[in-house]
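Table S5 (text form). Sequence records supplied for joint modeling of the two-component complex.
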Amino acid sequence: MTRIFNDPAEFAEDQFTGFLDLYADRLRGVPGGAVALRSGEPQVAVVVGGGSGHYPAFAGLVGSGFATGAVVGNVFTSPSAAQVYSVAKAAHQGRGVVLTFGNYAGDNMNFGIAAERLRKEGIDVRIVVVTDDVASASEEDKRRGIAGDFSVFKVLGAAAAAGLDIDGVERAGRAANAATRTIGVAFSGCTLPGADRPLFTVPEGQLGLGLGIHGEPGIRDEQMPAAHELAQLMVDSLLEAAPQGGGKRVAPILNGLGTTKYEELFLLWGTVAGLLREAGLEVVDAEVGELVTSLDMGGVSLTLMWLDDELETFWRADAYTPAFRKQRAPVAAIGGFAQESGDDVRESHAIPEATPAARALAGTAVGALETMARILHANEAMLGDIDAVAGDGDHGRGMVKGVDAALAAARIAYDGGAGAAWLLQAAGQAWAEHAGGTSGVLWGAALEAAGRSLTDGRSAYADQDFVAAGQAFSAAIVDLGRATVGDKTLVDALLPFVEELAAGVGHGGAFPDAWRAAAAVAAEKAEATASLSPKLGRARPLAERSVGTPDAGATSFALLAGGLADLPAGALAL
Amino acid sequence: MTRIFNDPAEFAEDQFTGFLDLYADRLRGVPGGAVALRSGEPQVAVVVGGGSGHYPAFAGLVGSGFATGAVVGNVFTSPSAAQVYSVAKAAHQGRGVVLTFGNYAGDNMNFGIAAERLRKEGIDVRIVVVTDDVASASEEDKRRGIAGDFSVFKVLGAAAAAGLDIDGVERAGRAANAATRTIGVAFSGCTLPGADRPLFTVPEGQLGLGLGIHGEPGIRDEQMPAAHELAQLMVDSLLEAAPQGGGKRVAPILNGLGTTKYEELFLLWGTVAGLLREAGLEVVDAEVGELVTSLDMGGVSLTLMWLDDELETFWRADAYTPAFRKQRAPVAAIGGFAQESGDDVRESHAIPEATPAARALAGTAVGALETMARILHANEAMLGDIDAVAGDGDHGRGMVKGVDAALAAARIAYDGGAGAAWLLQAAGQAWAEHAGGTSGVLWGAALEAAGRSLTDGRSAYADQDFVAAGQAFSAAIVDLGRATVGDKTLVDALLPFVEELAAGVGHGGAFPDAWRAAAAVAAEKAEATASLSPKLGRARPLAERSVGTPDAGATSFALLAGGLADLPAGALAL
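The corresponding structure-token record, covering 1148 residues in total, follows.
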């Protein structure tokens, strides 16, 4: 929802004041909107406009190679005729004015009245109305204008900057509109500043196909699909509505409406791009981002402008506005690639020969990793939840990614004839490489160290060797993490575990019994990380957020130690 | 929440695939991240990185004048050491590598391990850790890195692009970090892809001061303040934590965390800018937008980097990346202003002389506008709600803005000695100028037409004159709106009203009786606009959204007609 405002009724004016302050070096505020500081030769003025709440439409598009001026109405409301008149007068450079806006009744009237008034003063005024929303009407000239505004404005701005006369600019703009189609989908509604409930809503888990940017009715609601299905739905909708003789080159816009994030747009673009190419289309300078928004609405729209040579030239042209900047030649010329690299990251080692004992232990290690993977998959959500209390909630996912990679590497090593030492090193490297995060580094290094401590040339392994492996495991973690007991980390459970295991084996007990006793200690110590004292490195915690929840790393370690105690006794004891 | 994905576990990889497709002309994907296509002379490589979910951090900042490469981890998770190594190798141009990232345990470890591995191969590697979050710790080197990442990376990137050696680049980066402070606030939590509930939340109507970008604990929760109080809170927090000897020039970043919209950021910036200047600071190239985000988290952060000459040079320098583009000299040189204009918008007319009858009628008109204003204020929310069903929900607000402006203009006209004709014309112009939207144009033009029909030179006004004014009112609306009866607009109520009024007066009835009868007809006809047939211009409406709700324009007209019937009979009959 919209949360930042003073008097909600003054939202549009207040946000525009801040906007003008920010871009005072490039834009000038005039009654009703903003105009670009003039640059170079006089050109046809391109004046865009509409309601507020759609940033960067409309004021964010004023600048070199784009709009000359923007008229800024109240939130979701057409500007008045007087505002249009004022901005157009300020933007006019003696070569005429093109007024351009999305097709809504209020905008048509207000811009129309202003045009008549300007014409009475002898100014040559043309109107280019954008009608790109294929969901809003079957007749092309009745369609609403949505993200295709951007495409049409861009062409008009580039044509004016190229020095075309008003006939040429108008013609290019009309051609752009005739070649442009958009389909929008909404996942959630938006809330006007100060309102206590949304202007409209979309049922949770649903998608409103064709819903307008002010919540105008769409075609239908349906179940929210996976990203690749959404991409297919949008691409199909546009290709069905393609203009006659549209050709094979398209300028796409994948537009976020508000709360849909850039990462989601990129993800969707990955599929959209493929579908467009499969359809035989050539993608020209795709734009993915927030270009025509609707406050905090959740949703996306896909726009295609089918290009001819002229439209392609204007679409590709440079521009520099608050919200859109494009330069064909970057700051420095593009040279060759940086050195080819990255191929040496995974060095290929020949697997060293292993004794039968090392091979048998390798089989046990694969079994242990399988058990660990099962435990971590089963507890992924729980580990994420407790990590979310004082950390970033990634522990469960990180551990699962790590163990899956380690297990896969271990299986390959086993099939290749590896002993336990080599296998655990490969597993640790894979864990570290694929898990990421803190836990990934620690577990990867620890497994690798444990493996290194074993060596694959022995004819037998004694309990004491496994204790030494455990000590190598914990030493690696202490070295890297630099935490000590009491810091409320993994180390709080790990060190007492290793001590107890060593003591149990030292007293001559059976290895499985010593392991079970050590696992019980680990569980107890992991529980104890939930206490009132702040966790290391988390200064000034909110007491009510971090009290009573154990550390996620200590918890996952204790879980794994406990789970491995249930391996067949023979496996642990070998 | 995060809604667009295929397999949630593959979100980070999938979004990065789409990102690389989009920017394939400028970036190259390598295992673990992306590097810029090399431009110009070899330079020190600046490799940024961290978890996904923070776009444009980190991959969106790779390009000329900024980062050489970015390492991309899983969502909210440090990349692995192997990923860092891979990207750094690919980014290296023979002049050394600076690794730079926010201060989190996982990042410190993974980047640290990679640095050691690179150094073993003879590559000169430096590490610059960003520690800008003043809410996370009192000791500067323990602080987390948040939006100040952007400031420090920018300086490092510009220093490298300027050709400095690795000592110089590292020094500039450390100076940037020492000079940078950020305070963040959160309004709402964020949801990991595929999760069925948020990673963390902020109680509705509250603000989490200092909450981290992964939901790490902040300083305290408090009531959500007005925008100007929020600005004060953030500016005060930073000025208290200013670096020693920081000087008077600052580079601010007002950063949106996810669902906070650009308009809200501009509004907040309007106050922040003023407070900084009041504190005697000079604002240098402020950036307002989404620069370091946190999925769909609601919130903002304010960063200040205190500048010396070197930092100012690097902060101001050109850059061109997917998400950040800056050019000191725009595409064409900035010339003078566009022609000064806008001053002639409000022409000043001398108020023509009015007869006593015209003056008396003017008093009645002011009273009628007062009644209308009262009715519209009382019904603003209701009118917005019914407009939200098939329109954009702005009808209530637009009518209130219009009538307030009209009433203010009418009072000034009355105090200036105007008659009813001139007064209504002034009121209509003010309504049209200030209301915006469709209804603003229509009501403004209609009042103006009604006024014009009266003239201020008469010695008396007859009932028939008011009927004629009503006919002029409705003719203006029909002319402009081009709707006819049955289109389910204002016209459905207006034309029958005027017909009934004319008939009542024609049959010799008392004017107040005729008006009341006409108002009853208007109410009935307004109700009837709620029906099963689609509204004009709304193709393919969702039946369940628009059925049973009357048109907002017809409703407000009927309300006003009914309310004016309750004026003292003498006032209407004059």
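Note: Chain B has 18 helices and 15 strands.
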